[in-house]
Amino acid sequence: MAKRSKTEARLQAELMASFKHFFPKDYWYKIPDTPKMKGSNLRFIPRKPFDIVCSVSKIFFAIETKVHKKTTAFPLNEVHEHQEVGLDEADGFVWLNIRRGLGKARVNFIVVIAISEWMALKAKILKSGRKSIPLAFFEKYDKIKWKDGKWQIEDFFNEQVKKIYKEHAK
Prior knowledge:
Elements: H1 6-22, E1 27-30, E2 52-56, E3 59-68, E4 73-75, H2 81-90, E5 93-100, E6 107-114, H3 115-127, E7 132-134, E8 143-147, E9 150-151, H4 154-169
Parallel strand pairs: 3-5
Antiparallel strand pairs: 1-2, 2-3, 4-7, 5-6, 6-8, 8-9
């Protein structure tokens, strides 16, 4: 089981605080990580399907967060198969936080990708023989920015809720 980084833990805490700021009456839950056990304490605990569940205007969201800050490409194996399956079953999203640089050159934003789009993108990249997605590829996506001590997540959730209600109204 991969160890969650301090940076990913910080991102999840920042997202939770931002969510509670913008949606104080809605629901957010961080699924606890599987504890590390050795020897006689070892027992089967299923892998968690994703990091976060939340509800906005009675619409369920499943979210897997990833933080990337070291290279110029995002490795496809960062989103594990069991996470892809869980997100696919829940029609969830991969939230990729790109963090690079310091000071004025600092880059810090989140790209949100629906799991169906992630799976299609992954298949295309693997077919080309690559094992990672160049970060420049994500330039075409809308970005969630950090501003005034909060992730500006309000527009993303409101757009998704409108989209879902519109689809159900048909």
